[in-house]
Design brief:
Elements lengths: L1 E5 L6 H12 L2 E4 H11 L1 H13 L5 H17 L3 E4 L5 H14 L5 E6 L2 H13 L8 H15 L2 H7 L3 E5 L4 H13 L8
Helix pairs in contact: 2-3, 4-5, 6-7
């Protein structure tokens, strides 16, 4: 299974990524986790990532590709992957598609989890209040949701045109979201590669 989870902050990519990785026996690769780990490791690359995250800005494409490529290549060699938060924009998607085509590991599906902004904001503020991420403040959340709409939103029609998009309402229980994802995946072409 080679799957991308596409969703705004707070829509449940992490939860669904873990569930789907366990279900299909593949690695869940969360871009945010890898980028945060790199930021905590320090160094020039880590400092650049940390500064972007503190502002709620997206990390530059070349940095994301440098961090993500080794993890994706390794996971693909071991049966597949669930990508969470990568690619995040059209240039990343095009670069990732080119690399995947060269390696023979193109995406089989892109799952788009969507929910209203007020639901996402409430979830993110709740996570921050429970000792979660320090970058989940009201102002940063608004900025991140706006960036998602402007930067990542165009990936929805891109993957729809490739015939691999599965849209799922994330404003329901995690179990219902998982069931809807699996139902959507079962309707895709068995060949899957697009």
């Amino acid at each position: 299974m080679r799957l991308l989870l596409l969703a705004p902050p707070g829509a449940g990519k992490g939860t669904q990524g873990d569930r789907l990785a366990a279900r299909y026996g593949v690695r869940h690769i969360a871009a945010g986790d890898l980028l945060r780990a790199e930021a905590q490791a320090g160094g020039p690359l880590g400092a650049e990532i940390a500064a972007c995250q503190a502002r709620g800005d997206l990390v530059p494409d070349h940095v994301v590709l440098d961090v993500m490529t080794p993890a994706v290549v390794e996971a693909a060699a071991h049966g597949g992957y669930i990508l969470d938060g990568f690619p995040r924009n059209l240039p990343q998607a095009l670069a990732a598609a080119e690399l995947a085509a060269r390696l023979g590991v193109t995406l089989q599906a892109a799952v788009y989890l969507h929910a209203p902004d007020d639901v996402l904001t409430r979830r993110l503020l709740g996570r921050a209040g429970q000792g979660g991420r320090t970058d989940d403040t009201a102002d940063v959340i608004r900025h991140r949701l706006q960036l998602f709409a402007e930067t990542t939103g165009p990936l929805v029609p891109y993957y729809a045109e490739r015939g691999i998009l599965v849209e799922v309402n994330a404003d329901q229980s995690p179990d219902a979201v998982t069931a809807d994802i699996e139902a959507g995946l079962s309707k895709l072409s068995p060949a899957g590669d697009a």
